[in-house]
Design brief:
The protein is an alpha/beta fold. 43% of the residues lie in helices and 20% in strands. It has five helices and five strands, in the order αβαβααβββα. The chain has a five-stranded mixed β-sheet, sandwiched between helices. A hairpin with a 3-residue loop joins β4 and β5. It is globular and about 40 Å long. 46% of the residues are buried.
């Protein structure tokens, strides 16, 4: 967790300095992204909200993604991660939407992804999406890695946006 807090501190400072905001949707990271960002002093200046969208009912109730929105998509994929990031940005009026979806472990998910598979996405002044494959089955370790990857992508997006 210390690794996440160390990554979140400069992210929070950059967002505050730019007067930008973030909204988070995470699945297999289980709230760790939001927790790390919220643990920073002054988080209320940049953190608009987050949702753990671990299930279909959560996806619908918290993010408003319907079965119709999911037509042709599957969870734990890059297109789905981008949909989550865009939807969170739009729903909360944030500068940035940040999303993570995957399979923490110790086994894979029902979609055929192995443990350690995650897709992370950002939507804002720039859009980016990445797939991470840790090759590990340890649930907690993967959750930490997924959260770190999501925050690294937001950091990259901040760089790209200038």
């Amino acid at each position: 967790m210390d690794k996440l807090l160390m990554r979140a501190a400069p992210l929070g400072a950059r967002l505050r300095e730019r007067r930008q905001t973030v909204a988070v949707s995470e699945s297999s990271a289980g709230g760790l992204i939001s927790a790390a960002l919220l643990a920073q002093s002054g988080a209320s200046a940049y953190f608009l909200g987050g949702a753990v969208t671990y299930t279909g009912p959560a996806r619908l109730g918290l993010v408003g993604i319907t079965d119709e929105d999911m037509a042709g998509l599957r969870s734990s994929s890059e297109p789905y991660a981008m949909l989550l990031a865009r939807r969170m940005r739009e729903r909360l009026g944030a500068t940035w939407g940040l999303a993570e979806t995957g399979a923490a472990g110790p086994t894979g998910n029902r979609y055929g992804d192995a443990a350690g598979h995650s897709c992370v996405a950002i939507s804002g002044p720039v859009e980016m999406v990445r797939t991470l494959e840790t090759g590990a089955s340890g649930r907690w370790e993967n959750m930490l890695d997924f959260a770190a990857a999501a925050m690294a992508l937001l950091d990259e997006g901040l760089d790209a946006a200038g």
